[in-house]
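seq as requested:
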Amino acid sequence: MSVWTKRLSALSINILLLAGIMVFMLLLMEGGARLFGVNKVYGFHQFIQPSRVLHNELIPNAVSRYISEQGEFDVDIRINSMGLRDQEYTLDKPEGVYRILVLGDSPVVGIEVPGEETFPNQMEQLLNQDNPGRFEVLNGGMQGYSPILYYLFLKEKGLDFNPDLVLINFSVTDVTDDYDHAKRARFDEEGMPVSVTKDVQLEDQVSFVPFKQFLRNNSVLYHFIRDRYHRFQYEMKTEEAKIIGDEQTTNAPANSEESEIDLALATHLAHLAGKDLREDFFAIFNETFLPEEESAWQQTLVWLRGIHQLCLQNGIAISLIPVPQPNQVSTEEWKEGKQLWGFDADHMITSPHFQGRLKAFCEQERIPFINPLPRFREVSLQKQLFYPYDGHFNKEGHRVMAEHILDALTTRHIFPQN
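struct tokens:
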């Protein structure tokens, strides 16, 4: 055996020994994390799969759990055979049934509460109290969706459910997410989307995702490190934004109506400093926008018009609902979470421009507009409607959403009168 062969053999043994030690240390750390009570945060990623048309979609028949590290919720998640976070329905609508399809992102899919407590499910329960089996309310929500994907979902899947009514729940993240999704979209000759795919090729994901998925599903340590890393990243960005915001506030002109408004929203403006709606969804509450931001807004309205046209062509009623942001509702909502986002604990957004712009759009397009914000502000005086850290609806928030939507649909005669 030559000297080089011996050296290579020794090197191979050392590498294997080092790899073994590393694996042992990781297993030791994993055991320590479990022993000392570090909870695994089951992420939503375990229920989704890449889609060639819809970017991501729920995995049919997936079953697992979604756990808050802060102890706010521990929820069993079940996806039905049609890829909806809902009970089983037949694709063909039963005779005599009025079917509602609810579109939206995280507030609709509601993974922070059990399936029966999501507001689409609570709507169905309330509607069927006096008319058992008369109504079906399908939860078409998906984490991270926005109007460009609401349009594609309705076109590719939703119309097959033959709904009588489509409810579009518009979140504060929708314009920002639309801008991001549009970068990955393909369009037809009329400029309407035909697909939204991932940055990477789906074929490349197949070989990589299973290993990452294994860590997500089985490793407490993976979630602990990942969570701390993302918190550190965001805290650094927040501090940078605050410094820039403080400088802008210091240099702002005094004794003007505009500067008084800026000072009243100082914390909010600091968070937005150096950013715009294409990057930071909180900018949606701004009164004015850069031309590029306005262009992003207008593009989102194009997708909403596309949804409206699909509904008109298929004889489907439609309503649009802006989802209340917790720090629009009360200073007492989302106390813990908004501090992580760089806001003061008592910060509240009073700007009416988000809901106002959507209302003006609906009036122009003759789309019924339902605004739950006043109802949320009223009820929030007596009970908490959002999780303090996570910021999504809790059970009571979903209940208020369901009741308000049903009241509006009934009083405005959007439902069939019989």
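Residues 200-209, 252-272 have pLDDT under 50 and may be disordered.
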